């Protein structure tokens, strides 16, 4: 039997969505398989944690769980049915009819009525499309840009493989056909709707299909120029920094941006940033003291 998802995450039943995400991330950092190699207990707890988060992070599924319509594994709960539910239909009731129990003497009529009731119910549920299910998936910046395969742990402990297309955007919803709830009878299953959240990168920024990068360079590299290895979303490349490059100068690396659906790619734009040494350099200070620049970078400014 699946554990109560609220207890798994350690939150109250009235917890906000922000509280749920905060609790999940805190526990995921402790139980993630990458941090506990070979620890089967931690792996099982992480699966349980992921399943609880999947259920409660979807407002619709959470509401259905709270109402008792599904259990902690996401399985539909059948409502209890009583004879009164059928007997009181069509204006007939053994509980309210003046003839009381005498109504049961006409068995043929009862059989016809029950046959019609159950036949009608059977016909109405013979075929029906299953409900869609929403999931939330966090991706690293590079996984979203380059694409790949990711797994989502479902409330019942099974996993759903998700193919991430290259160039996936933050907030995008991926649709997996017929990976949702089972249909009624021979009806088709619903779809799984995967909402994507892309985590920020330490130094890459996406703008449309282009990638922006700020590249620190030394004073020497800026004055004399240099050939530098520059990171891109698809691997490092060598870039030539021209002589006399100031902070703010932009270099374009063609075709090293985000993959497009047509097979092309955006570009990467590198903004140079001059950075002085972390420790004072007496030689540099002496040189600068004796150096007389031919012009001032502020000469065009009017005061």
UniProtKB/TrEMBL annotation:
Compositional bias (Basic and acidic residues): 59-70
InterPro entries membership: DnaJ_C, DnaJ_domain, HSP40/DnaJ_pept-bd, J_dom_sf
Superkingdom, natural source: Bacteria
GO cellular component: cytoplasm
Biased composition (Polar residues): 291-303
PANTHER family the UniProt entry points to: DNAJ HOMOLOG 1, MITOCHONDRIAL-RELATED
UniProt protein name: J domain-containing protein
Provenance organism: Rhodopseudomonas palustris
């Amino acid at each position: 039997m699946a554990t109560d998802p609220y207890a798994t995450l350690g939150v109250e039943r009235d917890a906000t969505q922000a509280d749920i995400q905060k609790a999940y991330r805190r526990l995921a950092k402790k139980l993630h398989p990458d941090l506990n190699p070979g620890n089967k207990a931690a792996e099982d707890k992480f699966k349980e944690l992921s399943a609880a988060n999947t259920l409660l992070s979807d407002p619709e599924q959470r509401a259905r769980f709270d109402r008792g319509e599904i259990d902690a594994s996401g399985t539909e709960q059948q409502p209890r049915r009583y004879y009164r539910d059928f007997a009181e239909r069509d204006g007939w009731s053994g509980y309210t009819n003046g003839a009381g129990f005498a109504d049961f003497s006409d068995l043929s009529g009862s059989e016809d009525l029950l046959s019609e009731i159950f036949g009608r119910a059977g016909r109405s549920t013979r075929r029906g499309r299953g409900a869609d299910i929403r999931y939330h998936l966090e991706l690293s910046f590079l996984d979203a840009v380059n694409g790949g395969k990711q797994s989502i742990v479902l409330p019942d402990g099974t996993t759903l493989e998700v193919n991430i297309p290259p160039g996936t955007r933050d907030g995008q919803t991926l649709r997996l056909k017929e990976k949702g709830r089972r249909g009624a009878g021979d009806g088709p299953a619903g779809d799984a709707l995967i909402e994507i959240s892309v985590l920020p990168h330490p130094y890459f920024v996406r703008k449309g299909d282009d990638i922006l990068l700020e590249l620190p360079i030394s004073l020497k590299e800026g004055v004399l120029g240099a050939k530098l290895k520059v990171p891109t979303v698809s691997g490092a490349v060598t870039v030539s920094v021209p002589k006399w490059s100031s902070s703010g100068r932009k270099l374009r690396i063609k075709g090293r941006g985000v993959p497009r659906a047509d097979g092309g790619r955006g570009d990467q734009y590198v903004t140079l940033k001059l950075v002085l040494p972390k420790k004072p350099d007496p030689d540099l200070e002496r040189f600068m003291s004796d150096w007389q620049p031919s012009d001032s970078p502020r000469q065009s400014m009017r005061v």
